[in-house]
Model the fold of this input.
Amino acid sequence: MTNTTTNRTRFEGDLSAPDPIPAEGIEAATRLMQDGRLFRYGEDRGSIPEAAMLEEEFAAYMDMKYCVGLNSGGCALYIALKASGLETGDKVLLNAFTLAPVPGAIDHAGGDAVLVDIDDRFVIDIDDLDRKATASGAKFLMLSYMRGHIPDMDRLMAVCEKHNLIVIEDCAHTMGAGWDGRLTGTFGDVACFSTQTFKHVNSGEGGLLVTNNEDIAARAVLRSGSYMLYAQHRARPDMEVFEKYRASTPNCSMRMSGLVASILRPQLTELDERNRKWRHMYDVLAPMIDTIDHLSMPIRPAKEGFVPSSLQFMISGIDDARTSRFLSEAAAHGVHIKWFGAEVPIGFTSRHDHWAYLNGMGDVPNADAVLHGLCDIRLPLWLSDEDCAVIAAVLREAMTASAEAA
Ligand SMILES: Cc1ncc(COP(=O)(O)O)c(C=O)c1O
Done:
């Protein structure tokens, strides 16, 4: 999508446009609306509710025993913390590069976030994790695979074992991604996924929690708001496990609705194909960006099976004023870039120092340096190879123009 009527390249697509729901999902949702059974639990035992089927299918995809559908990824993180035994005032280690709902979930659960630094690949700094785990005495790690970047999981899990950390994986950006052939979401004690519109599958709002731990699973189902209907779950522990927690676990009404599940089920069958497409786009666009002055791509280790629904690059060697000009030149020519270094948070893009309610310990100097230069572009599924070339041309010309305007 390009317009060459001026001497500057312009991208005519809308990078913020979501990907549509597949026809099968629209039909399933329509059938459900005609039927009216939108609530996840049915009184009629004759048919299996959509949410229970989605949970069973997602558990099978992940090769995990238990799965719980929830109303958002943020609620999944909150429930994962509570179901893992977090109590008010407990410390939770958290990599400093993440999105606002993640520290939000820690706060919601009553935890105190302890920020851990990141390295130049935008992932948790494992040495700093080791140090901060010792210094803080924290028993929980919220590991956020922000923007799909995956740390060296062998080294990371060794440090987690050393400190006996309960690991909650935030897989909002890594559905179907892996490390050395093993899916993210299967390394820790419990993992959470988001199905918000800009994630790998889209239901507007939605979350999924997976675990192999029967106690965490039962507590998550109960807290999600299962009333006494939890027998209707299919990817759940045996009924006697629920007896242990039934009276002591509050119902927080964070259930996934049948409507959301009906939209998601057909998308799950497309997930691997979508991820192949995203990987292809990245492989086309990333090398082009890497050749533009002052822009660089992070190194991606061979073991990292990433599934990039967005792309991040670094800006270096120019001042903030020129960065701002580069961003506005690119935007004026159709490419909207998010910048994590902006003083004031814009749209989704806020930074740890914007979350003033965090009072946990944690100096994160490298995160501060990296985020100052970090930029982000969404990769919608419809992007073609030609689109990628146009985007790269817009960025190249915007960088040149930003110098000329100085
Ligand atoms: C890294 C990360 N974790 C968790 C979430 C929470 O997901 P949700 O929006 O479904 O609450 C998001 C949402 O954008 C996210 O970006």
Notes: The chain is about 40% helix and 15% strand. The domain at 270-404 is CATH 3.90.1150.10 (Aspartate Aminotransferase, domain 1). Residues 72-74, 98-99, 101-102, 144, 146, 170, 172-173, 194, 196, 207 surround pyridoxal-5'-phosphate (CB under 6 Å). The longest strand covers residues 310-315.
